[in-house]
Amino acid sequence: MWQIITNNWGAFLTGFWNTILCSIIALIFSLILGVFFALLKVAPPKFGRVIAKVYIAIFRNIPLLVIVMIFYLIVPRYIVKLSGFQAGTIGLTLYTSAFIAETVRAGINSIGTGQMEGARSNGMTYTQAMRYVILPQAMKIVIPPLGNQFVNLVKNSSVLAFVAGFDLMYQAQLIAFSTFQTIDTYIIVGLFYLILTLPLSYYMRHLEKKLAN
Q1: Residues 52, 40 contacting (CB under 8 angstroms)
Q2: Residues 63, 18, 13, CA angle at the centre, nearest 5°?
Q3: What is the C-alpha to C-alpha distance for residues 15 and 23, in angstroms, rounded to an integer?
Q4: pLDDT digits (tens, 9 = 90+) for 9-30
Q5: Cα-based angle 79, 170, 101 (whole degrees, multiple of 5)
Q6: Domain with 191 in it: what CATH number?
Q7: Full domain range(s) for residue 124
């Protein structure tokens, strides 16, 4: 196993870096999109709620691999050229944002209606009340499920292997095929994923406890 690491260190580092980069990009944009569509789903305008429901329904109920393949095969053919890394990152972002939207929406709905009514009676607009009163409370509630979504996002980044995204799983496939050491190679890749996910899990727990206090 150690020989596999030393002989393929460059490939593992490339895959590790691409996995980190994909995860960070997808995490940032899926959180932005998720919060946006969560707010849209609870907003008064009916048209906005319909758009949010359609978006969430589509990306929550289509498998991640299918979404990624659409961006890898169909979008480049008819709209714009995308690399495997770009297609995988976009698909992962849209897929995760739908689950984040539902998580944040549930957190917002868990806040009593009296909070919004009290803020509005004090002269706040709907946007101000949501920004300064409702969202801060809701985000404290949704930290644990959001943490799970972030960890799942990192693990789901392995979908890039199917579109030549040069992530950890893709590099593992190449190394396994060239060395015929399949079991050892995937054990090493599993350890790399643990290096990414365990600190994230512990940080989300720490953040949850900090906000609770």
Answers
A1: yes
A2: 130
A3: 12
A4: 889 999 999 999 999 999 999 9
A5: 60
A6: 1.10.3720.10
A7: 1-212
pTM for this one? 0.91
CB within 8 Å of 178: residues ≥ 6 apart: none
Percent of the chain at pLDDT exceeding 70: 99
Token code pair at residue 172: 């593992």
Rounded Cα gap, residues 146 and 210, in angstroms:
15
Alpha-carbon distance of 162 to 156, in angstroms, equals 12
pLDDT at 41: 94
Look at the chain and report how many structural domains it folds into. Answer: 1
Please count the other Cβ atoms lying within 10 Å of the Cβ belonging to residue 126: 13
Res. 44: pLDDT tops 90: no
Q: What is the pLDDT of residues 191-207, one digit of tens each?
A: 999 999 999 888 888 88
Is there a contact between 140 and 83 (Cβ–Cβ < 8 Å)? no
For residues 10, 13, 19, 21, the Cα torsion angle rounded to the nearest 10 degrees is -100
Residue type, 174: L
Instruction: Report residue 167 as tokens.
Output: 């992530």
Instruction: Indicate if the pLDDT at residue 73 is higher than 90.
Output: yes
The answer to whether 101 touches 85, Cβ cutoff 8 Å, is no
Distance CA 167, CA 15 (A): 4
In this prediction, residue 6 has a pLDDT band, given cuts at 50, 70 and 90, of confident
How big is the chain, counted in residues? 213
Q: Alpha-carbon distance 189 to 175, whole Å?
A: 11
Q: Which pair of tokens denotes residue 180?
A: 């015929």
- Give the CA count within 13 Å in the CB-facing half-sphere of 52: 23
